[in-house]
Sequence to fold (199 residues):
Amino acid sequence: MSRPRCSCCKRPASHCLCALIPDLSSCTEVLVLQHPDEVDHALNTANLAVLGLRNANLWVGEVFDDLPAWLAEPGYRVRLLFPGDEAQPLTLASSEEESRPMRLVVPDGTWRKARKLLHLNPLLAALPRVTLRDVPPSRYRLRKAPMEGSLSTLEAIVAALNVLEAPNDYGELLKPFDALIEGQIAAMGEETFRRNHLR
Fold:
């Protein structure tokens, strides 16, 4: 029999993180496209990010039928937060054209699954890409980063918003994330964590 779960943060009710989740506004609209395999993952950081942002949505799937209409809505700059040869460093808007509100699309899943989302949604793959630069090391101490500069989905969203919405600081979104990581470490035991993750 499974443990009762919080319907909001999806954590076990005994480890609910809702009290730590902020209620933050932003001009930037964030759309997280989550691979279905991530939904029930114990470390679902995308859900925490969306819960803490008023102007954010989470769509779960592999093919997103509503994406063409959403992308066609006028008045926005739409960018895909994903690395690649054509990806431009994310910067604060500096011209009238760039002052239009941004819609930031963030794929959520392993690198392989995120690439699959792009492959299955050609309109998504065709979006102008942006990437982060000079990011702090990930606080995601439970996973070994596949490449330098890798961040969890929540950390990437925080870093992006800190650029796009400067001087506003979205670090408060990391409070439930830090508690989540600390809780997982406590559950496995400090000795097990040190043996398996501090190498």
User: Anything to note?
Assistant: The chain has a mean pLDDT of 85. The chain has seven helices and six strands. The CA atoms of residues 141 and 197 lie 7 Å apart.
